[in-house]
Design brief:
6 helices; alpha+beta; disordered N terminus; 261 residues; globular
């Protein structure tokens, strides 16, 4: 399948906030919704025009960040949590805005039992096995016990905003050990370069919802995995954001920077 055929089959829709239809009580299953693009975030577009209240009308599971790159956003069971700089979780205000977030009305298939220990590379390899259509976008939720989870958050930025790589250089990393909780996130294929963060992108919230953030590394002891294949993607573009392709090198550099911190 060519890239254009893939995108057509996925039903990718780019729209402006002014053109968004009012949210419906129930969105179609497997329909992901995103605010802005990863390319814009990489370039320092840290202000969006979508509130979390509006975002949650489109899904109950997801991840992202808040305006000004103010921490990491974790959406679990329809509740938005903000991981502050110390990686402590607090409820995110419904009126807060997001420059980048992805959510889905989570509708997974069968529960899959996971037995570890598995490090992050082993987990990604394990997650690839139940995918019926390799290369298709998927949303995932992992409820389990983790020997370790390395999470990060970033300090709120002020204008003029730096590129994301510069902001990430000041990230705060927290090592969690023997912790129960939930990982949520997505895996997006190369065909969505410029729109999505390619590969696996996971955020974590502890079971007591006290700590969490963007996952840099982990070791899973055991858990239950839920996978939802994404068939539609709607991307809301803030007024100042356009779509350009070809950010794979920037994304690779960002991931290398994360691992070096």
């Amino acid at each position: 399948m060519s890239e254009l055929e893939f995108l057509g089959a996925l039903q990718v829709e780019l729209l402006r906030h002014r053109d968004m239809e009012p949210a419906h009580p129930a969105h179609p299953r497997h329909q992901a919704f995103q605010s802005s693009t990863v390319e814009a975030l990489l370039d320092g577009a840290f202000d969006g025009d979508l509130t979390l209240d509006e975002l949650l009308e489109h899904g109950d599971l997801g991840l992202g960040t808040l305006n000004g790159l103010d921490g990491e956003l974790v959406v679990v069971d329809g509740q938005a949590w903000k991981a502050d700089l110390a990686c402590d979780l607090v409820p995110a205000p419904a009126s807060a805005r997001t420059p980048y977030a992805v959510v889905v009305p989570f509708s997974p298939g069968a529960r899959l039992a996971l037995e570890g220990p598995l490090d992050e590379a082993g987990l990604e390899a394990w997650l690839a096995k139940p995918l019926t259509e390799p290369g298709r976008p998927v949303a995932v939720r992992i409820d389990g016990r983790f020997t370790r989870v390395q999470v990060r958050s970033v300090p709120r930025q002020t204008r003029p905003y730096p590129p994301l790589a510069e902001a990430i250089a000041h990230q705060h990393i927290r090592e969690l050990t023997d912790v129960a909780g939930t990982m949520v996130g997505f895996c997006f294929p190369d065909a969505l370069d410029g729109i999505e963060l390619l590969g696996w992108h996971l955020h974590f919230a502890s079971q007591d919802r006290r700590v969490g953030g963007h996952v840099l590394g982990c070791t899973v002891a055991e858990g239950v995995v839920h996978v939802d294949s994404v068939t539609e993607l709607h991307v809301e573009l803030p007024p100042t954001v356009d779509v350009h392709r070809g950010t794979a090198l920037d994304q690779a550099g960002l991931r290398q920077l994360e691992t070096e911190q």
